[in-house]
Amino acid sequence: MLVKSGAFAIEQSSEAMPATASPSKLPDELPQNTLLLCAEQLSGSYDSGYGGFGSAPKFPRPVENQLMLYWSKKMEHTGKFQEANEALKMVLFSLQCLARGGIHEHVGCGFHRYSVDKFRHVPHFEKMLYDQGQIASLYLSSFSITTDVFYS
Fold first, then answer.
1. Residue 118's closest CA among 105, 139, 102?
2. What is the C-alpha separation between 86 and 70, in angstroms, rounded?
3. Structural domain boundaries of the chain?
4. Which of 47, 111, 113, 121 has its CA 20 to 30 A from that of 64?
5. pLDDT tens digits for 30-61?
């Protein structure tokens, strides 16, 4: 059964890819309209009260924050400073809430997997190694943009 479903997934993926697509012909960057759609959807799910995107359970979701940092830089380079600033503020506030919340383990360091409540108070007590690396990278990126030692 597993082999059959794997073959089906490959077949579906092949059909979804354009015939001209090959690893050497794929664009170096996300198409602007794809990036815009992602940024708009994330902005629409932004939690301005407790940071992050979406509601409880509250996962750190560093990939989404990295996309918003990327979007911010793209908007800055095109002269859309207000949009760039709004995206950056979303990420920075989310990181502040994450660092001050219950999933940040203040004694042993690192971050628990997620918070079971929207307030980021009650952690789910497990840590994932890949989360630690992605979250550290996100804080480092934010520090390099702001030079604010909070993010270092």
1. 102
2. 13
3. 34-151
4. 121
5. 677 888 999 999 999 999 999 999 999 999 99
**Residue 94: CB partners within 8 Å, gap ≥ 6?**
51, 52, 53, 65
In whole angstroms, what is the distance from residue 98 CA to residue 52 CA? 8
Report how far apart the first and last C-alpha atoms of the chain are (Å, whole number): 48
The rounded distance, in Å, linking the Cα atoms of 149 and 8 is 49
> Among candidates 91, 73, 88, which has minimal Cα distance to 135?
91
**Rg of the chain on CA atoms, in Å:** 18
Tell me the residue type at 37: L
pTM: 0.77
Spatial contact of 99 and 50, defined as CB atoms under 8 Å apart = no
pLDDT at position 29, please?
A: 65
- At residue 80, the pLDDT reads 95
Query: Binning pLDDT at 50, 70 and 90, where does residue 1 land?
Result: very low
